[in-house]
What we know:
The protein is an alpha+beta fold. It folds into four domains: about 5-80 and about 145-170; about 95-145, no CATH class; about 175-260 and about 330-365; about 265-330, no CATH class. The chain has helices spanning about 45-55, 110-115, 130-145, 180-185, 190-200, 225-235, 335-345, and strands at about 5, 15-20, 25-30, 30-40, 60, 65-80, 80-85, 95-100, 105, 110, 120-125, 150-155, 160-170, 190, 205-210, 215, 245, 250-255, 265, 270-275, 290-295, 310-320, 325-330, 350-355, 360-365.
Amino acid sequence: xxxxxxxxxxxxxxxxxxxxxxxxxxxxxxxxxxxxxxxxxxxxxxxxxxxxxxxxxxxxxxxxxxxxxxxxxxxxxxxxxxxxxxxxxxxxxxxxxxxxxxxxxxxxxxxxxxxxxxxxxxxxxxxxxxxxxxxxxxxxxxxxxxxxxxxxxxxxxxxxxxxxxxxxxxxxxxxxxxxxxxxxxxxxxxxxxxxxxxxxxxxxxxxxxxxxxxxxxxxxxxxxxxxxxxxxxxxxxxxxxxxxxxxxxxxxxxxxxxxxxxxxxxxxxxxxxxxxxxxxxxxxxxxxxxxxxxxxxxxxxxxxxxxxxxxxxxxxxxxxxxxxxxxxxxxxxxxxxxxxxxxxxxxxxxxxxxxxxxxxxxxxxxxxx
Length: 369
């Protein structure tokens, strides 16, 4: 399954720019398309042109059906010098809070950068008054509005020019927004409602299937959209089920519980679908979730997974040769309670917590304000 490069969706472009071939990329249980990379060697003039123009471009593997993201960073080795260009520190819509009187500046923006790359918000603090905070914000805007190439390293003895492309799924762009969750909570609000607010605030992502999770939040998570969304997913639901979000090929955000139904079975180094059918040659269609071991004995265990032969595969990565690797994580119900303590419990309330992994029956948790 090869990958193609298209124009920036920030400019509404859908034109094919280049064929990237097979990329190395990963899919995470939270967010879907996660990280990717591709290394190119060739003519220095061509590579320099790519380095100048590809940042922010749209990457689609198999038409976006198995992976979709954008180029957020590139490093270009030209002789011994390695140049870096990245969106990680970009910001073209800045607000600054003056800590001396807790006043916030109006948005300080670069309209041309917004038209080119999308609106990348950044909220900063300045230790001083509002006038100095405005000046600080304008200085930061000049530094961050455009991705400038800068020397990052020296590699002596390197032969030939090389361009390394780094990609991220579109959940990366949720970091550019600051959803108004404080305004959305009037006494309390459900987790599902706040997820819909986050998806609706995004420039490029739209709400998809937002399943009902009535877990009430009495305080709003703080930070950018991705930080808030992760905080909500960290809490699960009132029945201690883990929840997650995924972004599909059409950039719709879906919010749902993690299914306990195994997706795949791994036996003797071979992977097959749970309902049958080998995945040999289709490794780029592997996805995270609950997997079943065909070699471990099946016996009941306490906790969410419920069986000794089930595992939670959080990340699936595939290299350029199609070889898969997996990240397996233990599931700990206690982490849900720790996450809910901050946002989803009234101050002073007490709850008995079942902690199967710690070998204890229950532990009382008192939530403080």
